[in-house]
Sequence to fold (494 residues):
Amino acid sequence: MVFQQQNYTNTTNYEGFNRQDSKSFYPREYNSLSRICQGNDMKISLSWNVNAWAKVKQSFTKSIKSRLFSCSRDEAYKQLLTDVIGIVSPGELCAIMGASGAGKTTLLNILNFRNNQKVETKASVKINGIEANWDMISKYSGMGDKMKGLSGGEKRRLSYASEVVNLPPLLFCDEPTSGLDSSMAQSLIESMRKLADNGKTIICTIHQPSSQIFKLFDSLILLTEGRLAYIGPSIGYRVPNFFNPADHYIQTLAVSPKNKQIDSMRTEYIVDRFGKSENYARILYDIYWTESRPAFVEQDIPKYSANYLSQFGWLFWRQLKLDLKNPIATTVTIVQAIIVSIFLGLIFFRLDENEKGVQNRAGALFVIIMQSSFGFLFAVVNTFPSDLTLVYRESKNRLYSITIYYLVKQIAEMPKFVITAAIFVTISYWMIGLNDNFGVFFQVLLTIILCSQVAISCGLLLSAASPNIEVAIALVAPAVMPLLIFSGFFLNDM
Ligand SMILES: Nc1ncnc2c1ncn2[C@@H]1O[C@H](COP(=O)(O)OP(=O)(O)OP(=O)(O)O)[C@@H](O)[C@H]1O
Fold:
C-alpha cells in the first residue's frame, strides 16, 4: 500500500483527542467553537458535503435514444465530485491537492459559491454549522483569482494583497503560487500562514508545492477523479525517503491515460480504504460535532470597512495619480480643443453683422455646442467597461461603494473637462467675434460648460449600461442621432 496511515491509536479519544504538532487542527471542540464570534474577530469553521455533475455532450444517436427512452442521469452527466466531505477550522491553512483534472477547482468554486452554471451540484456548505449562501460567503470571504495579464509575480501578489486587505475571516485561493518563483511562492504562503495563525480560515488549491511550502500547511485534502483520497493533517502519511511529499501524493493519485485501468484500480483502492479509515471517521465526527452546535454567525459586520469620506478621499487620490501617470490623455483632449477652436475661428473669422452673418452665427454656435458636448461624450464613454473588473472586485471586497466610485469619477474628471471647454469657447468666441460684451461671453461660457457636463453624464450613463467598450461606442450614434435631428428645429406655432 502506497499510503501508510500513521497510527493514531494513542490519541483517538473523540471527546478530546489531540495532535501534538498542530495548534489548530485538533481538537475542534476547543479551537473552533469557543473562538467563534468573539467581538469583531470573526472565526469561521467551514464544513461541506459536495456532489457535482457536468452535462457531457452525447453523440446524436445517443441523445435521441436518451430522449426517447428517458435514460438514466448517468448517461448524460459526468460526475465531477462524489461525496467529497470536509471541514476547515479557524487558524487552519488547508491545501487542496490532486493530479490535473482531479476536481480541485470545481470543489473550491462550489465552496465559494462561484460555481460554473454548467455544473450541477448537490452540496451542503456550512459556516459554523449554519447553511451558507452566496451572501454569507461573499461577506466573510476573500476570493483569490488566477490573475491574467501582466507579468506574474507582482500582479499575483497585488491580487492577493487586495483580497486580504480587509482581513476576511475566510479566504479561498485558487493556485496562488502558480507562475511565481520559489522564493515568491514561499513568501506568499508564509503570509497566508501568518493570517492563519491569527485565526483566519484559509483554503487553497496548490500545484507541486516545494517541501518547505508543503510543511506550512496544517491540513491536506487529496482528490483523485473527483473523490476524496485523504483529508487530515498534512503530515499524516509516510513518504519514501528523499521524496517531496506533495509530488509523491500527486503521482500516487494520478490516473494516466496510458495505464488508466491499473491507475484507476489503485486510486479506487486508496479512496475506499480511506473511507473506512479512522481519519475519515474523525472528520465525520468533527463535521457532526460542529454542525450539531451551530454557532451564532455575526451578520452585522459593516458594509464597508472605511467610512464614505475616506473611501472618497482614497479613490480621489488614486484617480489623480492615474491621471498624472497618464498625462497624454489630458494633453490630447486640450490640444484637440485648441486646434478645433482655431480651425473653427478661422472659418467663421470676425463675422459681419448682416443677414449672412446671422446665419453663420447660428452655424458657428451649432458647431460649438456639438464639439463641447459630443466631443466629451465620446471621451468618457469607455470609462466603466475598462474599470469594470477592478471595480467589481474591489466593491465586492467591501473597499468602497459604487456610488462613491461614480462620484469620484465625475468630480475628478470635472476640472479637466471644464478647462477644456473654457479654452475651446474662449478661443472660438473671440475669433468669431460673437458679441464683444464680457457679460454675454461669460453667459455663453457657463452655458457651454453646463452643456458639456450634461454630455459627460450621458456618456457615463451609456458607459455604465454597456458590458464592454465596443458596445459603449456602438451605442453612442443611436443615442446622439435624435438630439442632432431635433437641434435647431422649431415647431410652427412657436
Ligand atoms: N463545465 C464542465 N463541463 C464538463 N466537464 C467539466 C466542467 N468543469 C470541469 N469539468 C471536468 O471536471 C474535472 C475536474 O476539473 P477541475 O478544473 O476541477 O480540475 P482541477 O483538479 O482543478 O485541474 P487542474 O489542476 O488541471 O486545474 C475535469 O476532468 C474537467 O474536465
